[in-house]
Amino acid sequence: MPTVIKHRKTKIVTLATGEAIAEHCGVGDIAMVQDDAGWWTHFVGENGAIDSYDVPFDSYNKALWVAKAAAEFSAE
Fold first, then answer.
1. Is the full-model pTM beyond 0.85?
2. What is the 3-state secondary structure (H, E, C) of the chain?
3. Which residue, among 63, 76, 70, has the nearest Cα to 28 in the 3D structure?
4. N or C: which end of the chain has fewer CB within 10 A?
């Protein structure tokens, strides 16, 4: 079950292993997903387009900090 944090009107959704971004996120949401490499921060756009950073973050807290910073930027 995903965990949702709302920051500056942006949903930041932390997904568990096997949960699909398309099932739990909409346009403008930020999805955080962990795999063996680390924590990925994905930005959901129109028509299901997903944009991500090139490398994962080594901790949940770093990924969340970046997601919140992106939410701050998009709220301006």
1. yes
2. CCEEEEECCEEEEEECCCCCHHHHCCCCCEEEEEECCEEEEEEECHHHCEEECCCCECCHHHHHHHHHHHHHHHHC
3. 70
4. C
CA 7 to CA 63: how far, in whole Å? 14
Alpha-carbon distance values, 64 to 6, 19, 46, 56 (Å)? 12, 18, 22, 12
Q: Are 31 and 57 in contact (CB under 8 A)?
A: no
What are the φ and ψ backbone dihedral angles of 35, each rounded to 5 degrees? -140, -170
Q: Write out residues in the chain with pLDDT < 50, as ranges.
A: none
Backbone angles phi, psi at 55, to 5 degrees: -135, 150
**Dist CA 25 CA 28 (whole Å):** 8
